[in-house]
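User: I'm putting together notes for a lab meeting next week and I want to include a structural view of one of the chains we've been expressing. I don't have a solved structure, so I'd like a prediction I can at least talk through. The sequence is below, exactly as it appears in our construct file.
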Amino acid sequence: MGSGLSKNGNLSEKSQRASTSISFTLKATFNYSDCFFETVPKENIQLGDIILFRMDTSLQSSSWKHAGVYCGNKKVVHFDGIVHIQGIDAMERTRGKCQILRLKRGINKDAFLKKVDAMLNAETTYHCVTNNCIHFALSLLDMEKFYHEIFTFVEDGNGNDAGEQVPLNMTGQVDQNEYNRAGQFQNNMPLREIPLRNIS
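Assistant: Thanks for the context. Below is the predicted structure for the 200-residue chain, given as structure tokens.
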């Protein structure tokens, strides 16, 4: 997605997004006081809690880096190149003990579940600085941007029986500008004249 920013603007945005990841990771690793989150035990886990795992590394340090979000039924939605859901117990077996953070202000559970469902159709590219698992997790709690596009198929009977993909924006709504441009293109296509024949 084009941002329309200048070179300095791009550098500034990259620095800010890198800072978000580093700051969040450091606070979680060293248990800095945070006005937004509180640490909770696994037995009290709730919908929308952020779950942090150590990244696979040869270093024997307890740096918490990989983030996911608890979406109920002992499952975690997370982003590691693709957005997918995995069992929390299976993740602990492969990644080790997890740390759980809860947003103090709480979440809108219905909106959160709708966003999780939409994100399973997200198309995006992983970038360790500007678009990573922490950006993804925080975006589900409406605290950070996650760069992605969502495509969905239109159901039959709603004006697009061809089953064409309709572009949606970052909030999961139809991208009206793109939809209008596509319609204008179709309307401007030259019509082929078909000569009529007299049938005797």
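A couple of points you could mention at the meeting. The longest helix spans residues 7-30. The beta strands are 37-39, 50-54, 64-70, 75-79, 83-87, 99-103, 122-123, 149-153, 165-168.

User: Perfect, that's what I needed.
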